Amino acid sequence: QQQQQQQFIQIRYRSSPSPASSLSSSRSRDGRAAQPQASCHSYLHFVLHKQRMETLGAIRLLATSLGVRICDFAYAGTKDCMAITSQFVSVSDVRAEQLVAISDHLATRGIRTGNYSYQKSPLSLGCLRGNHFAIVAH
């Protein structure tokens, strides 16, 4: 039997989020990061990390893979399609476990997700904490 290895992205920002809204850093018995619990909050917030793909293209792939509509997703802005970028995304009525289950398929397309949390409301255009980026010239 092959053991399937799970990978998660963890991004830390200068300002600390409220404890209720962040992913717990506790570990499960097998050493993997614990998954957040969905309570009455119906929006899954997560970080989308993508390479050489437009935001809408990544959202379209997520929607198709999860069997949900593109309009169920929300994000705070678009990112450069030729760059390696990370951004916050929210989706309604999807569980973190569903994203983890398709992570291998997404990874083959240059997409990873992580930092899952459940919130009462979706992201909206302009809900940015600020743009931070590094430019690498070749």
Describe this entry's structure for a reader.
The chain is an alpha+beta fold and 138 residues long. It has 3 helices and 4 strands. It has helices at 55-66, 96-101, 103-107; strands spanning 43-51, 73-75, 84-92, 111-119. Strands 2-3-1-4 form a 4-stranded antiparallel β-sheet. A hairpin with an 8-residue loop joins β2 and β3. The longest helix is centred in the middle third of the chain and has 12 residues, at 55-66. It is globular and about 45 Å long. The termini are far apart.
The percentage helix is: 10-25%
Q: What distance separates the N and C termini? A: 43 Å
Spatial extent as radius of gyration: 15 Å
Task: Please count the helical segments.
Answer: 3
Task: Going across the biggest sheet, name each strand in turn.
Answer: 2-3-1-4
Number of strands: 4
Parts with pLDDT < 50 across at least 5 consecutive residues: 12-29
Q: Give me the strand/helix succession.
A: EHEEHHE
In round numbers, the mean pLDDT is 76
Main sheet attributes: strand count, strand direction, barrel closure: 4 strands, antiparallel
Q: How would you sum up the global shape? A: globular
By secondary-structure content and strand pairing, the structural class works out as alpha+beta
Strand portion, in percent? Answer: 15-25%
Core attributes:
138 residues, alpha+beta, 17% helix, 22% strand, four-stranded antiparallel β-sheet
Task: Please sum up the structure shown.
A 4-stranded antiparallel sheet has the order 2-3-1-4.
How would the blueprint of this fold be written?
Elements: E1 43-51, H1 55-66, E2 73-75, E3 84-92, H2 96-101, H3 103-107, E4 111-119
Antiparallel strand pairs: 1-3, 1-4, 2-3
